[in-house]
Write a structure and sequence with these properties.
It is built from 5 helices and 12 strands. The chain has helices spanning 33-53, 138-147, 160-169, 192-209, 231-236, and strands spanning 5-10, 58-63, 81-83, 99-105, 126-131, 134-135, 153-159, 174-183, 186-189, 222-228, 248-251, 254-259. It is globular, with a radius of gyration of 18 Å. It is 24% helix and 25% strand. A 7-stranded mixed β-sheet has the order 3-2-1-4-7-8-9, with helices on both faces. By secondary structure, it is α/β, with parallel strands linked by helices. The protein has 2 domains: 5-120 and 137-212, Rossmann fold; 222-266, no CATH class. Helix 1 (33-53) packs parallel to helix 4. It binds zinc ion. Residues 11-13, 65 line the site of zinc ion. Zinc ion binds next to loops.
Length: 268
Amino acid sequence: MTRKKFYISVDLEGMACVVGAYGKGLSPDTPNYQFACLQGTREANAAATALFDSGADEVYVWDCHAMGVNLDYDKLDKRCSIVMGSGMRKRFPDIDESFGGIVFLGYHAYDTSEATLAHVYSSATFQYQKINGKDVGEMQVDALIAGRYGVPPIFCAGDNYCVAQAKESFDGIVTVETKKALAWNSCISKHPIKCCEEIYEGVKKAAAEADKMKPYTVGEPFEYEVRYKRIEYAQGCTYRDINNNLFERTDAYTRKGLIMKPEHIFEF
Ligand SMILES: [Zn+2]
């Protein structure tokens, strides 16, 4: 391991034994949310411990679900730096070329028929997003942002669909399947403690191979397409392309245009 700083990006929908609730996703008033926070803390610890045991000297744990205040911070490995809260409008604060890799925990698939809690950013707002004509999820966009600093995605844990999408996007990424999806709010999960053991082993393997892993890039500029769930959202879309024109409206719900940086996706 030559670069000894790592980022663990912790979403919650992809954690073991997390299914949210019908019609609500994983909002804080659902009975499954408290468990998701507990398991998020455990999975983050498993990954952080694996990184430190592999020789890392700095690990950022980013609490990135919803408003960024989910994990039980007292229980996190005290060597970690904790990125949390909302309103900064920047992905991966402090990231630069000195980081050796991104560990994705609790991420979920982009919209597919059966994946557990599949969505992009907001299941109430967006139908899908595409880059250069191909469906992508939050994990791919985050990896693209890290890729601009030369930082590769090295590990992903999530349901079987999320893991399959990660493998399709990122050559050589190490993965752990936390659960098999049965429906949007249903799964057959691995035991949460067993999952943490597998994450520890998987992240150790990923850390050992991190130097060989490639950052995720798609070339610049690239075409970004977003389909909204409501016509008025598409009407109100303020994205601008590389010529500073509003994105083209391709149908009632959809906008697309060429942009230079994946960071622009968050400027809506
Ligand atoms: Zn989330």
